[in-house]
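Customer ticket, subject: "Can you confirm the structure for Rhodopsin domain-containing protein?"

Message body: Hello, I'm evaluating your service for our small team and ran a test protein. I'd like someone to confirm that this is what the system normally returns, since I don't have a reference to compare against.
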Amino acid sequence: MLLFPKNEHFVEDRGRSHQTTIIACAVATWSVAAAFVGMRFYTRRWLLNVIAAEDWVIVGALVFSAAESAGFIEQTAYGLGRHMSGISNENLVKLNRAGWYSILWYSLTLCLTKTSILLLYIRILTYDWVRRAAHLLLASVLVTNAWTFAVVMSACVPLRAFWDPSVSPVYCHGQSFYWASTGMHMGTDFLICLLPMPVIVAMRVRWRQKLLLYCIFAFGFFVCVVSIIRLLCLIAQNSKKDTTYDNLAIPIWTCIEVNTAIVCACVMTLKPLATKLLGRRSKPRRRPVPSQQVALSEGHPPTIGSKPAKFFQARQDSSWIEVPGRVHSDVRNLDEDEDEGVSVKPRDLEVHIMLDKDMPSSIPSAHVREVQSPAGP
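Agent reply: Thanks for trying us out. I re-ran your input and got the following:
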């Protein structure tokens, strides 16, 4: 909530205003986010021919981000970016009301963005513990944002007292509620960024490809840094008197945070588009095995965010395992068969590690097949 002037004397330059800067930042950052969402949908619809739930969730985040940008533009119309002494009390009421809307849209944008990222994790990361952790994080994000939504909707009783000082409030939340909400949001941000890192460490790929994956997923840490900067700006605003003019950093960093988060969620899905635009600069060092040829001939290269490929060989007892160390349920344990009284002959298994080196986002697979043992006495 913005402070109302109490006959303070501000050292001001009436010819200066930050309004143009705020509007330009709101429009530019949202436009960049919209461009990445558009590229994501082009990749998913036209290159991979698959659109999942996380894609529609990120569209919802983009819509709420547009509402937040519109809220900042509305605030500039009522005086945000100008000196407080030159703004009427009537406009300050409207400015504070638009600020309340912006807080609501900000929370919903981050909630949907995190939900989209976690849904993508659940679908592409095949380690059981990672999926369980992603489900727990998703539940935490939803509960945290439900609590934040309740706090914002009940900021004051009656709610109008939040932006109109002429209304005597029965109750208003203290600042501790908002600091707690900010801390929980930042905590989930860091956990979401850290979650895929152990999976990347376990992948057996060339160091350049692994470095690329680290950079893609670590891009989310930039959002965490922006959140910290924004928090410091919020803390600093309490010591400023000319609130509408001096707090330029808050709308700037808020727009950067929410729209960069949307960009981060989209970058993970753009591998096929980058391949299409840049082309392959290196040839594979070995011929792909038949199962890889099938995957490439279908026109759906495996990538972060694409459907997992399924390979079948006629009349062959085989299993494709997307993560090393996991054994598919179809590969039966010989000891268990013996315990059940089933006569089982000794068998040998060949394990072939599959990896398309030209697709750094694909996860190594193991091809397990039975090898006939030589006839014995």
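A couple of notes from the result: Residues 19-278 form a domain with the Rhopdopsin 7-helix transmembrane proteins fold (CATH 1.20.1070). The beta strands are 156-157, 171-172, 318-321, 348-354, 365-371. Feel free to reply with more questions.
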